[in-house]
Amino acid sequence: MSTHLIGKEHAFGTFSAAHPPALTVRPGAGDLVTFETDDLAYAQMEELRDLGKVTATINPVTGPLLVEGAEPGDALAVHIHDIELAPSGWSVSIPGAGALAEVMGPEFMVRRIPVSDGRVRLTDTLDCAVAPMLGCIGLAPADGEASSVMPSYRSGGNMDLTDARPGSTVLLPVQVPGALLSIGDIHAVMARGESSFVAIEIAGRATVSVDLLKGVDLRAPQVDTGDEWVCVGLGDPVQDSIVMAYESLHAVMLEHGWSRDDAYVVLSALGHTELGGPTGSVTPDPLHPFRPVGAVTLARIAQDVLHHPSR
Prior knowledge:
Blueprint lengths: L2 E4 L4 E2 L1 E3 L6 E3 L6 E6 L2 H9 L12 E7 L7 E11 L2 E6 L7 H4 L4 E8 L2 E3 L5 E3 L3 E7 L5 E3 L4 E2 L2 E3 L10 E5 L7 E9 L10 E2 L2 E10 L8 E3 L3 E8 L2 H18 L4 H11 L1 E4 L19 E8 H4 L5
Parallel strand pairs: 1-5, 4-6
Antiparallel strand pairs: 2-6, 3-13, 5-19, 6-17, 7-16, 7-19, 8-9, 9-10, 10-11, 12-15, 12-17, 14-15, 16-20, 17-18, 20-21, 21-23, 22-23
Helix pairs in contact: 3-4
């Protein structure tokens, strides 16, 4: 087992097979790879208060990591071991972005958020426990480039899932030889759904290891949190994303030995859905780049139910 660091100088604003690999690893060897991320764009927003003047990449992803033997039709299992946080992060209201854009108005709101001793100081009177997670985790798409801002893709991307946290394994469908994994957009803490489109963003380092699941062809990302199994659904309108998420979770239950009918009954009673991150599932109108189109839905079921004897 070896340890590696991919520095933030290997950062891009897209997921793409055209980006040269920063590192190559053999899957299953247990190598620990640390991805370093930065928050320079938020520092510039604080200074300039004008998105048109920001020169740093917004939501950069570090990588890519080439995984030997990965081919289209496989799945990459990314085990998240640790996320280290910088001493402070950011809460930012970008004009026109997020569900609260109207109430926040046309001006930037930027607040530095201290993070220390496992606590995030949200206001002068309220803090909360850190809950670090990865907003962006994804592979190179089969064709062209995939934005690190929006939408979310079959191959991952800016999904903003609180489930992508230390102790979880994120499963991603491989689209190109080598998979080409990139990671970014660390959060110190984020509410599910990320109402503001920008939660407590923070620079940091994420350490992962990778395994390769040959011949496992996923429709979209899935997450094993240890306590739950989560399937991502993508679609426009939102109902299509709900159907995709439920269908994927039903298929997972069949793989674990459940009959079609038993899985149906159990999901109706114990399978839950919720909206995922705010990025949508369809590329937005370039005139409104922060207005999502389509939806991301998460379907989840408890592991003790999934692994309950089905016969």
